[in-house]
Amino acid sequence: MTVQPIRLFGDPVLRTPAVEVVDFDKELRTLVSDLWDTMQSQGGAGLAAPQIGIGLRVFTYNCDGVAGHLVNPAWTAVGDDEQDGQEGCLSIPGLYWDCVRAKNVVARGWNMHGEPVEIQGSDLLARAIQHETDHLDGVLFLDRLDEDTRKRAMAEIRSASWFDGTVPTIKQSPHPLFGAR
């Protein structure tokens, strides 16, 4: 379909919770295709609809040899294991910081045809599922960083060539934070 421009940190759409999809129609299939093409063109592990300016609960993913999309997703951690590792975001290009996430998750939602989907992910796939679902809730991974890392991250963002000077407030995630803010 079409590669879309990615919205960057500071754009209000990234801080606005997305609404549930109610129509599994041609427009949704076009959105999924656009998300896929845009994610692939940028080499991302995932991309959520708000990142291309669409406030719907849809994301695509392609990591650890598993690729697809989820509509109206919800995830739960499987066990108590955590992973702490580098995380980046296509809406915060070229910058990466360590972020704590659940190591194993199961996500449920629907595909673009309205059929139920369940995926189980560990490591990178689990990280991508959590990261993209956060986008659908208006949460950025910066919100999950410890205070010192978040301060360093904001300084790096402010000095990035793509940054336009708009600094949104850090938002509390509605999901468990595994001991982090």
TrEMBL record:
Q: Do the record's keywords include Cell membrane? A: no
Active site residues per record? 132
The record's section on SUPFAM superfamilies has:
Peptide deformylase
Binding residues annotated for Fe cation, in chain numbering: 89, 131, 135
- Does the entry feature the keyword Protein biosynthesis, yes or no? yes
Name the GO terms of the biological process aspect: translation
**What is an example of a GO molecular function annotated in this UniProt entry?**
peptide deformylase activity
Catalytic activity, reaction form:
N-terminal N-formyl-L-methionyl-[peptide] + H2O = N-terminal L-methionyl-[peptide] + formate
Give the matching InterPro entries.
Peptide_deformylase, Peptide_deformylase_sf
Span of the signal peptide: none
| Details of cofactor binding | Binds 1 Fe(2+) ion.
Cofactors that this protein relies on = Fe(2+)
Q: Which Gene3D superfamilies match?
A: Peptide deformylase
Query: Its Enzyme Commission number?
Result: 3.5.1.88
Cited PANTHER family: PEPTIDE DEFORMYLASE, PEPTIDE DEFORMYLASE, MITOCHONDRIAL
Similarity field: Belongs to the polypeptide deformylase family.
What functional role does this protein have? Removes the formyl group from the N-terminal Met of newly synthesized proteins. Requires at least a dipeptide for an efficient rate of reaction. N-terminal L-methionine is a prerequisite for activity but the enzyme has broad specificity at other positions.
Protein name (database record): Peptide deformylase
